[in-house]
Structures are given as structure tokens and as C-alpha cells.
Write a structure and sequence with these properties.
Blueprint (H helix, E strand, L loop, with lengths): L1 E3 L2 E6 L4 E6 L4 E5 L13 E5 L2 E5 L4 E5 L4 E5 L5
Antiparallel strand pairs: 1-2, 2-3, 3-4, 5-6, 6-7, 7-8
Length: 79
């Protein structure tokens, strides 16, 4: 779970997505299609650094903008 301004980002591992809520609990959106390539990321943790949302999976980390736009992925075979 991570707080970005007035938004709360929560991993929804079972549905392979990050769910974004307002701090009052109001649903805002889902970020799905995490990662790239043939195997989608199953998120287990999320962190925010500046304007980047780091979504941690089993074998890689996908980096998205806080708006949900995919930026890049690293880690598959790199660790």
C-alpha cells in the first residue's frame, strides 16, 4: 500500500492489479496490465518514489507513472 498525494494505491494480487482509492475510501480507478511482455505481473507490493509507482512482482518490478501509464520493467533474469 502506498499514499500518493490524496490517493491510496493498494495491490490486488488475486486480480493482478493495483486499485486506487481516495483517502476517504472512494474508488478512483484500477491499474491493470501491469508489466510488459507475455507474462503479466502479479503484484505483491507497491511503493511511490517522486512521480513513479513501483509495482513489485515475483520476478520483476514494473514502473508506472502515478497516472497508471506503464514506463518500464526490470528484474526478470536480472536478480
Amino acid at each position: 500500500m502506498a499514499v500518493v498525494g490524496n490517493r491510496l494505491c493498494v495491490t490486488d494480487t488475486g486480480n493482478n492489479r493495483v486499485v486506487v482509492h481516495g483517502l476517504d475510501g472512494t474508488f478512483l480507478r484500477c491499474i491493470s496490465n501491469l508489466g510488459s511482455g507475455h507474462r503479466r505481473l502479479q503484484p505483491s507490493a507497491v511503493a511511490v518514489v517522486n512521480d513513479s509507482l513501483f509495482v513489485v512482482g515475483e520476478h520483476s518490478v514494473a514502473v508506472h507513472g502515478v497516472d497508471g501509464a506503464f514506463r518500464f520493467e526490470f528484474g526478470e533474469g536480472q536478480f
